[in-house]
Amino acid sequence: MRTRADEITEITLPGSTVRVDEAGYLVDPAMWTREFAEMVAEQEGIELTPLHWEIIDFIRDYNDDHGVMVDVRHVIKHLAKLKGMEKNPARRLLFEMFPYGYVKQAIKIAGMKQPRAWSTG
Questions:
Q1: Which tens digits make up the pLDDT trace of 90-121?
Q2: Which residue(s) pair with 16 in the sheet?
Q3: How far out from the chain centre does Cα 20 lie?
Q4: Which domain holds residue 94?
C-alpha cells in the first residue's frame, strides 16, 4: 500500500501534453496517443510491430468496453486465437514481446493507469 501520493510530471509530445505518475504510467488513460505509446516503447527498448499494436489495441478496447484493465489471461487467450496457437506458446510469445512483464511494459505502453495491486505480471 502506498503511503504518499504519486509525483506527477507533464510530458510534452508532438501535438499534446500528458501527465504521468512517477513510474511513467498515464494519470488519465483518455489522454493516450500513439506518440505516447511510441515514446514509452522506446524507453523500454521495444520496437513496436503490428502484433504489438494488436495487443495494445486489445488492451485499450477491453478497458473501453468493460471499464477495467484486462487481465493478462484474456490477452493470452486473444493472442492465441489471433496467431492460431495454444495458450502456452501464446504466453511465451507475449513475454517475448514484453520481456519485463505485462504490467511493466504492455499496460504502460497501452496508456493504462499503474495498477495498485496486480498478481499476474
A1: 999 999 999 999 999 999 999 999 887 654 44
A2: 13
A3: 14
A4: 9-109
